[in-house]
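### Sample
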Amino acid sequence: MMLRNICRYNRQFGQGIWPFSFPQGQHVPSLSTRLQKASYASATKERKKFYENVSISQGEGGLYEINLDKRKLKTPGGKLLTVSNEALAIAVATEWDVQKDTLKFYTMHLTTLCNTALDNPTQRTKDQMISAALKFLETDTICYRVEEPPGLVELQRNEWDPVMNWIEQRYNVVIGSSTSIMGPQIPEETKETFRQHLNSYNFWSLTGLEYVITQLKSLVLSFGLIDRHLSVEQAVLLSRLEEEYQIQQWGNVEWVHDYDLYELRARTAAGAMFVHLSSESTAVKRKILQD
């Protein structure tokens, strides 16, 4: 079923809903416990679909809401799930609309990122998120180079060096690479440049960027993706260069490799989309999507 009447704005909806609940009479854990155990960790679970229609509406302050039938979607922490622009609302609503008989929450990456941005379950500040992102430079995927075998050494040089050259020129920084297990010594000037750049992101965009960095285990590749220097496929392949080399040499369990690859692409693409949509200040043209 395609998304019906997705831009039919209506403020007359009933109570909100989040698909994780506790049986009546059962002790309800503290908020922090619920967020960590019953909600975010439960993203791997599935549940029978309990709604037919998905739509979006514009509520107070111009924020957009997602509606499952006539119930407003809420975060695991009990907050109304609201987003700042229509484009992101449509993307999140589409995740719910494409679900079949069983809801696969682990496939709903944009919804998860919205929940994380709204609930901030670990109560981190923007500065803490930036510091965590910068720590990836110390062990960045493309900063650490092997000394053997020769084939992998050449592959890393041919594939990673152009990206390293690009980011050093793009941001006027020095990063370098190293074969030491300690990684390269990153100049403080480079860290400060990246810190200032990361600080230019709003909290939501930074949440998405951090998600991408975690998937690729690389700040360099993440910047390349967000700046549209790399495609999702390129960024993912470069982050798995050594694994792909080993697979070419020794083979693999095909379905396992393919599943992991597609999952990584999906998560990375969702994170990158979230960054861009969270930065979007203009609403997309209103229209109704029909079956």
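Confidence is low (pLDDT under 50) at residues 1-38, 282-291. This sample (ATP synthase mitochondrial F1 complex assembly factor 2) is used throughout the tutorial notebook.
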